[in-house]
Specification:
With about 325 residues, the chain is α/β, with parallel strands linked by helices. The chain folds into two domains: about 240 residues, Aldolase class I (TIM Barrel, Alpha-Beta Barrel), CATH 3.20.20.70; about 55 residues, no CATH class. It has eleven helices and 15 strands. It has an eight-stranded parallel β-barrel with strand order 1-2-3-4-5-6-7-14, surrounded by six helices. A three-stranded antiparallel beta sheet has the order 8-9-10. Strand 1, helix 1 and strand 2 form a beta-alpha-beta unit. The radius of gyration is 20 Å and the shape is globular.
Amino acid sequence: MPAAEKPHLVCPAGSLRALTSAIDAGADAVYLGLKNATNARNFAGLNFDEAQVREGLAYAHARGRQVLMALNTYADARDERPWQQAVDQAAALGADALIVADTAVLAYAHRHHPRLRLHLSVQASATSYEAIEFYRERYGIQRAVLPRVLTLSQVQHVIRHSPVEIEVFGFGSLCVMVEGRCALSSYATGQSPNTAGVCSPPSAVQWMERPEGVEARLNGVLIDRYAPDEPRGYPTLCKGRFEVDGRLDYALEEPTSLNTLALLPQLIAAGVKAIKIEGRQRSPAYVAGVTRVWREAIDQAFSQPRFSPKPAWAQELGRWAEGQQGTLGAFDRPWR
């Protein structure tokens, strides 16, 4: 391949077990969050306290891998101290980089810890090289995670015109919205996913048994109804089924997972620095299974002149995909 270097495989860690599973399966880096509102996957029972971060860092660094800490929610303007303290904590613990969206948090990190690597979170919704350059000039970011709304040609355009490392999502749940700007959940629950850390706050989720099936509600709003034997995913408003013009269907987005295995040669040739797997809210088994496939696929796509995804890879990833379905998402828009 003509690429200068092989892209890093960046995998999710919602727990210490998921972290070790990702490292053992071949991840070059893992990303994690703290057990507080600084983390955009702030689910009960997940994420890391300080002792667990120390243990995870030691495990990763002993094997030559990296740990990236996600401080990717927007700080409360009334009290920014939790985000500032999280930045200080990450620096003291020896995190390899911070993943940040909020300009105030970026400014604090850049000012107080100038040697700490900063990665621009997908939550910042920077979709052009001009936007990325703004963050590089002012806050010294070294990598930007692109939102999942760009075509492959648009990703290539950004890389050609930016000195900043570019990271893209390779596999996992899709977001129908421009990341960082969703208002659906906040409309229904009064809690923004950009600050509360989850699309559907657990306190607002209700499962109700009815004669016609199991209802999923978000703060009382009916967003789906399942047959008794039908698989049920975590309920989010954008992936609910609604009646529109007399037809009941997924009105906004059908449950499916992004899967860009088929585009690996093009992503590598474009100079993508890192490929990210979504899923800090998912199980260690998901992390291990998906990481193993992507480790093998990246290695082969980088080293072999001809690359074709193996059927076994598709079968394994299908086990973990939402609705057991995969899509290239915005990377491939036939109508353009």
